[in-house]
Structures
1.
Amino acid sequence: MDLLIFQAPILMVQASLDGILLGILFALIAYGMALQWGVMNIINIAQGDLVILGGYIAYTMYLVGIHPAWGVIVSPIIMYFVGWALYKLVINKVVDRDLFISILATFGIAIVFQQLMNFVFGADVVVAQSEYGTTMLFDNSVTLPNSKIFAAFISVIYAIGLVIYMKKSRLGRAIRATAQNARAAKILGVDTEKVYAATFGINAALCGVAGALISITLTLHPYVGLPYTVRSFMIVIVAGLGNLPAVAISGMGLGLFEEFADYILGTEFRIGAVFMLLVFILVYRRFKLSKKREYLK
Amino acid sequence: MGKVKQKDLILYSGLIILGLAAPYLFSAFKVQLTYLCVLIVLAMTWNLQGGEMGYNSFGNILFYGLGMYLTASVQVGMFFPLAEWTESGGEKTFVHTTAQYFQGIGVGLLVAAIVPTIVAGAIGYAILGLRGHYFAICTLGLGIAAGEIAGGIEIIGAGQGFTTPPFPAEIVDPEARGQFFYFLSFLVLVLAFVFVKYIYGSRFRLILNAIRDNEDKAEAMGIQTMKYKIVGWMCSAFFCGLAGGIMGGLIGYIDSTDVAFDGREMGVFMVLMAILGGKGTLWGPIIGATLFHFFKEGLWTFILGWQYVALGVLIVVIVVYFPEGLMGWLREKYPDKFGEVIDEKDRKAQVELK
């Protein structure tokens, strides 16, 4: 094989580190998706576009002269209300319906978001400069942008914070109760409508954090939302709903896969590889389950 | 199906005469009419597995794009080296003669119909084992992956696109190109309609409906659901491939993600049109596609730049408020009249099933 990655094994270290750091970020988005999937039983195709919108909030801060890293605090606050408004406008009408309806409705929302972002921020690929510099490892052969380490660090903090919040707080308990049995929760006095709105808001806020981190580590473009949706979907179906360690691990696995696919297949096939992996995972699980005469539910 | 009723006969012959006369009556809108035919074909065949079988696919765009690339590749590849053609991009170094052009597009369309059907059959066993939203997401992934992969393959133009052979210059009549593509698409439309109509009167449709309503029970009744699901998907793929081939020739330029595997436009349109008209009805997708096309062409130019916002809002509104579509709404409102418009036997059979 004359591929660069096999000629220079140090690139494998590079790809692995990049992949793991990136994977933690994906896991954060996937955690939001698992949350709303588990609680509200909807699949949100607009997940990736919420991420990109969160990223553009941080980018706007960067444009007006505030350091984009503050986006990890500002962006989730704004995104919480965006998510809440989205729930009140559309999502509350698709919660109890067929999953296909939620897929198609959120697909429509995704198109609207993409186009509005295209109007406001333009169709250029943008990035917010964090100016954190880079760390050189292994005799300067592996470069690691500090912003990526920062992103992974913040993701972990937010994830842990959310887990504690879900365990300890009143709202967290109400959310978990609703996820277990919405009807029973309602009978016991939980305002499920409020819980749903809050869940969707929290999901959007997580997307906001992830977006702000993406704006300093990767690039932003109005139309790259869908791959993030698919990545988080993939992580969730591999890890299962509400299993945070598994979400983190499969997120890192996806990050590794992507970085290696990037080196081996070439950058132009990177997104294609992500989508093919989705198909392969689904088909693999389908065959595994069909041995037991079951199917993915 | 039995005999065609007198009333139906008048309706069909009227529609066919209208279809044949349309390019002469509205000669300025020939391209739009061709689009309409293709849209109807796509909506009708999507409905076959989306509406009747209950397998909501976002990935029929895969067959559409495949058909498009295949037609153009065959049309070029039959006479000239394909790699040189795509490499030269817009600069034409090779010119098709009239005979070569029509031979090429004929064989190309044949390939474009057969290969996607085979592909659907080949991947059908794996993909159709998924149910509900997993199937939807999986096919969405397939469609987008195909676009991304096609955008990286050099021989079919990669990212810079593939210019399909221009209409032969020896035919000087400026109307000829539009008329050729219109009648081609109309022919496919009639074929598709006859085929779908035939299926609506057959046992096959009842089996598809059984799969939609309760697949486990259908299987327990001894129906080999997987076999029928694959055949249902192959039917869709056949017409999607044909439609794609025609559109490739009409547009004259194939881009991997914006024209061929255009999940953001065509891929959503076919689902939306079928839902707008009413899933699981014969006329629903046809009416839905026609309405949608008029709406799109009428409004697109007035809201230039905002069309995708309008499209997104339209999707949300239709899906959230009219999931049963126009036909479903009519059926609820005028059940008696509805029974007479639609094949009575079908309706009765459906009521009994419910």
Note: Chain A is about 75% helix and 5% strand.
2.
Amino acid sequence: MKGLLRYAITRILMTIPMLFILLTIVFLVLRVMPGDPVSAMLGAHAPERVIEEKKEELGLNKPILVQYVNYLGQLARFDLGNSMVLKQRVSAPIKEKLPATIELTFWGMVFTLLIGVPLGAYAANKRRTGRDFGIRLYGNIAYCIPVYWMGLMLQLIFGVYLKWLPVAGRTSPRMLSSQFSKTGFYLFDTLLAGNMRAFNDVAIHLLLPSLTLGIVLSGIFVRLTRANMLDVLKSDYVLAARARGVSEKLVVYKHGLKNAFIPILTMLGLQFAILLAGAVLTETTFSWPGMGRLLMERIYLRDYPTVQGVIVVFALMVSVISLMVDLLYAAIDPRVKY
Amino acid sequence: MKRILILMLLVFISIAVLFTGCKKKAPEKVTLVYGTTEKVTDMDTASAYDFHTWEIFQNIYQGLLAYKPGTTELVPGLAESYTVNAAGDEYTFKLREGLKFTDGTPFNAKAVKWSIDRVMALEGDPSWLVTDFVKSVEVVDEYTVKFILPNAIAYFPALVATVPYFPLNPNVYPEDKIVRDPSEMTGGQLVGLGAFKVSSFKRDEEVVLDANPDYYGEKPKVDRIIIRYFADATTMRLALESGEIDLAYKTLNPSDIKDLSAKSTFTTNKLQGPYIRYICYETSESIFKDKLLREAMSALVDRQDFIDKVYLGQNAPLYSMVPMGMIYHTDDFKSVYGDANVAKAEELLTKAGYSASNPLTFTMWYTPSHYGDTEVHLAEVLKEQFEKTPMVKVDLKSAEWAAYKDKWKSKEMPMYLLGWYPDYIDPDNYTAAFAGTSGSKGMGINFSDPEWDALFTQEQTNPDPKVRQQVFEKLQKMWTVDVPTTPLYQGNLYVFTNKNVSGVKIGPTLIFNYNQLDITE
């Protein structure tokens, strides 16, 4: 337990230099990019004096090094600063949009696992059959498909042709989210409010975007699970289990899959960053009001602090997930000790 | 772990599927859902300077004068009437009595003066529409207000109908700072005098407008309008087709417009808007300082070609900076240059010293997202048209909007593409803004000529329609000679609605009055 704690603390401390490097790059790239927030904000007719005053107010006329040191000082106080475009704290839109992205990526991950892992295990069990070939083909196609194209196809099929599912947003326009929104996690909020009609509305809105993410990312899990399962199914203990007359289902899906799960878990941690990148595109395709859209919009407006804030949060999320995955190893594999 | 995941998924799907078929409760209010890819900027008349935010303001606030829905006819708004002195530099407005803002604050002349003074003091982007034309505002009595102008301004009534002149509630807006979100106001609500009031505001997601029961004018036919914001045009089109929105307006892709127009399930409302596109030249330092080259480029443009290729025939060729349908419009570029006039262009280029072995080489700039996804195609087709003669070689470059604006200020772009929505409905707004010394500098064109400036002053100060007509006709002729810009096309606007929606009236002013909209369940 002591070792585990030491490991967790070391990992957390390691995120600090990672964040520092990432933020330095983002800070410099944003300021090197042509265009600045004052031009984006004030428009073409603003007098030069007003532009200069605004730059002074935002601290943009200071040397970049001074701006950078000031920003790091703010961060050290756990302060993401103020938006340069809207009169609000950077944390305000992040707090508002983050639950939407977490809800989307969580269910995207659930769909990824539910589609990718069983299909991969099944393909390994039916090695070199038509079904194996079909699943491998699916895995390759899903891996190659751009997420926005998949989203568009699902929107067309389920939204436009079948009219089963909505194509955009987190709720129907007539279902005003302000009536139930408390935490921003709408599934949870609607349950908390006991509003089943709203819960249903939120759930069906979540289905297509999370399924899109799930399908696209399931490809790599199909291939990974299949490859690992093939190794595991060749091992001695599987042979022994079969010799003892344990049913094939138990051998494959309990003993085999559990042992093949460690690399899958590793991949899960690594894929989370890709899942967040996918969420940015999915949010655009489905007009999902999350962090991805916030990031895109604020990049256009050159809202430096908000862009930096969103990236800090994304980086922290990836770090936390990687840490959780590492800690889960110990729970799954008794050989792993910290 | 697997069991938990399966259980979670089953709960999720079963609840979703079970309830999908359930009969929806009838909405309590007659609601119309309006989809758009536009964005709301600052919820402040002193700062917002974009088409969509102004559209919302026009429905939640009111001007002293207003446009009759769907027309360019100015009618009384919050003012019952106005008088103008003999010199044409003092306008006195008699306000309607007994009106109240939606929070109960009485509307009077003090509110008008306070609002105008605020716009002038805050110096936001649209403030020039007030500061350039108004010297001061005086409260004559409780319901009479006088605007004192620096000189006679022929189109002042049209200016008064623009958003920066809208009276605000002094109890709600802060006097000394620009408001971005309604949450920054006293009471956290937008409080106006218009047909609707804002009941919920979620930036980039939705804005909910409820009918204002105290509105003095024509009552809205629907109880509620929900404006839903889409991240891209394709999703908006799909949302219209799946029935999630009742109306889609600004901006669909040309291919979507073509498809939706062919469907009998939707009503297509096609409107000739006052929106224009044109080529700008940096005329003071760049290679296009030589007007022969600007003339040559105007001769090479083939308007119908790019309208067909890029916009699938959905816009109209434009041969003057003053758009079609507006007073004093003439088609001078058509008679002087025509389209794809390669022979004339080659003649002009030869005169300027260029040849096939010594071609004119320059960079044409465009901005990839500000004018929609079609912009890159427009730039490519124009490059193709310019290069129809071996005497021209074009390099294409793009920059995002924020960088684009910086570049035109720093004179980095010899040729670039821009578009224009009018601030006020008058030919002056389509001409002085580009070729008057001050306006031209702001647009990065940097054209300056005392003769032109004198003509602008004449049309701005002389209210006589005959004199103004002569001036504008002369200016449009001069435009073909000096070519500060080359007009390209005039945009048509498309509003698609479900069959049960009626009352879409958007006139040449681009004002979309929501109180005309109706929906049958």
Note: Confidence is low (pLDDT under 50) at residues 18-27 of chain B.
